[in-house]
Design a protein that fits this description.
The chain is α/β, with parallel strands linked by helices. The protein has a domain of 128 residues: P-loop containing nucleotide triphosphate hydrolases (Rossmann fold, 3-Layer(aba) Sandwich), CATH 3.40.50. Helix content is 39%, strand content 28%. The protein contains 10 helices and 10 strands. Helix 3 runs parallel beside helix 6. The protein is globular. The two termini are 31 Å apart.
């Protein structure tokens, strides 16, 4: 069995006095795709923010054998964790190409950074056409592609994806998820995916965790959860 890149144990997280996560455990295997599912308010986005040191946490978060809980967000980024937040987080007044440069700001291998633009444009040819265009003038789908591309410029060991399908046309969503699979297969990038579209997430992922009010209530292979009619009807709504 492939070892875990990310191990999370007894994770609690809170905003001020309000506790959102209540001692959850989960893993992301090296080269794997794990999805976290659940209703709005279940704690999915908070889980991703906890991986980046953006919320107050208790418990253990280990990346490739190193504890990252308690570290500053920038230190976690330098260790190879890239976050594509909900709302995309693009720098609207910069061009698409300038956004990509922002994604590589922690890297020192400048020659390889220049080569990586071509790698990104192979995944997202439309961004090549729009590279000199201000990000705020791109379509919603193009902005999401840019947000993912900016994260990939880090060459991350772990890619955190928060609701990448939100607000996008079905055709664009299918295209985007096909690219996620290609990136995972070609580059071996591990991914932790939070997604409201459970059916889509379970087709992409190899393992899944279902959150309910900040607790893991079901976990297992994505295939087993996808094929469990009782789970789908009771928790996933399809």
């Amino acid at each position: 069995m492939t070892e875990a890149l990310l191990q999370v144990r007894k994770l609690h997280a809170q905003y001020g006095p309000t506790r959102v996560l209540h001692g959850i455990d989960f893993d992301v295997r090296t080269g794997g795709i794990t999805t976290i599912l659940g209703a709005n308010g279940a704690g999915k986005t908070t889980t991703l923010r906890a991986m980046c040191g953006m919320v107050r946490t208790e418990g253990e978060i280990t990346l490739a054998g190193q504890r990252i809980d308690g570290k500053a967000t920038e230190a976690i980024v330098r260790m190879g964790v890239a976050h594509v937040p909900d709302g995309r987080g693009t720098f609207m007044h910069l061009t698409a190409e300038e956004n990509l440069r922002m994604g590589a700001y922690t890297r020192r291998d400048r020659a390889q950074v220049e080569a990586d633009y071509e790698r990104i444009y192979q995944y997202f040819p439309r961004l090549r056409e729009r590279r000199k265009q201000q990000a705020g003038t791109l379509s919603g789908g193009e902005q999401q592609m840019l947000a993912v591309s900016r994260a990939l410029m880090l060459r991350p060991r772990l890619l955190l994806l928060d609701e990448p399908s939100f607000g996008l046309a079905p055709r664009i969503v299918q295209e985007l998820f096909a690219i996620f699979r290609e990136i995972n297969q070609k580059e071996g990038s591990s991914m932790l995916l939070v997604e409201q579209n459970a059916a889509l997430a379970l087709k992409l992922a190899d393992h899944a965790y279902l959150l309910e009010t900040g607790r893991v209530v079901i976990s297992g292979s994505a295939e087993s959860i996808r094929n469990d009619e009782a789970v789908r009807r009771s928790y996933l709504g399809y």
